[in-house]
Design a protein that fits this description.
The protein has 312 residues and is an alpha+beta fold. It is 47% helix and 19% strand.
Length: 312
């Protein structure tokens, strides 16, 4: 296809995607859809940082812009780029471009990392040889073909009876288009059994499943067949933090969610996420969020009441 058509195709696909998101997410907030792995977001104002665990997913913006923060790193994405996370990562997201006139419109599509290798095999493309583990998050240029595949996926929301049969095919097309870009090596490293990326992904799943338990790093490294030194090195390459820092971030995010959405007291939240000392919890919470738990949650409730923050 003529490359000179690409800017027009890109613009047309973005307009289609924006219209579809506005139709199926007409009000501000995060909207689940009849396609279980697909969520839509609509916002008319800039947001406070919102933390959550991003599972393997692709995040595409049709209008506006967002910044995702992982540890001390920031990743900005907008209609010209998209964000991919290949493992479960504790991300702090913040909408940085939005207004009532031009709202922020985006989608997040979760995927099973194991499907990546199946697609590579069917496309007769050898998976890249396992290499040193790389960061589990990246921003890449959006292509017309990827956006058009996403448009076809979101259009299925207008025909619910087609979703059970056609949605899995449309999702595979989206992943195939991703693999035609810069993402192939990054995604495959987490899907190839025995690779450093695969082992770290297994360890991350274990930490997230038992984040409220004490973390024995030596035992965790042994479970995924890695030496302690190699485990530390590759874990930090993938997540930008150490295993203990990762667990602490997950614990504090969950505690914040419990206090904000379930009105759990700070001391109870501390115990529920695995802290034995409420004072240690308060110190680490203030270090991460800039203020003690009670004051932080009180201010967040005020932001929710004023509509500046979306809770999910």
């Amino acid at each position: 296809m003529d490359k000179t058509d690409e800017p027009q195709r890109l613009e047309h696909a973005l307009k289609q995607l924006a219209l579809l998101i506005r139709r199926h997410a007409p009000e501000g907030g995060i909207h689940r859809t009849a396609i279980p792995s697909l969520t839509l977001m609509h916002a008319t104002r800039l947001s406070e940082p919102l933390e959550s665990i991003y599972k393997p997913s692709i995040c595409v913006v049709a209008q506006g812009a967002k910044v995702a923060a992982l540890a001390d790193e920031s990743y900005r994405y907008d209609p010209s780029t998209y964000l991919v996370t290949s493992v479960e990562l504790p991300i702090m997201g913040r909408i940085v471009e939005a207004s009532p006139e031009i709202p922020y419109l985006s989608l997040k599509l979760g995927f099973d990392i194991d499907v990546i290798l199946e697609i590579m095999e069917k496309a007769n493309r050898p998976a890249p040889a396992p290499a040193e583990a790389a960061r589990g998050i990246a921003v890449n240029q959006t292509s017309p073909a990827l956006l058009e595949a996403l448009v076809r996926l979101v259009q299925l929301l207008d025909a619910p009876e087609d979703i059970p049969v056609l949605a899995p095919l449309a999702i595979r097309e989206v992943l195939y288009r991703m693999l035609q870009g810069e993402q192939a090596a990054l995604l495959c490293q987490f899907a190839i059994s025995g690779s450093h990326g695969y082992n770290i992904a297994q360890a991350i799943r274990l930490i997230n499943r038992e984040y409220d338990h004490p973390l024995a790093v030596e035992q965790l490294a042994k479970t995924v067949n890695m030496s302690v030194s190699a485990f530390h090195k590759h874990f930090k390459r993938v997540t930008a933090m150490s295993p203990l820092q990762y667990q602490k971030t997950v614990r504090l995010q969950e505690a914040r969610r419990l206090m904000l959405t379930e009105s759990v007291q700070a001391s109870d939240a501390a115990f529920r996420v695995g802290y034995e000392s409420p004072s240690q919890f308060s110190r680490e919470y203030a270090r991460m969020y800039g203020k003690p738990p009670a004051r932080d949650v009180q201010e967040l409730h005020g932001l929710v009441a004023s509509g500046n923050r979306t809770v999910h």
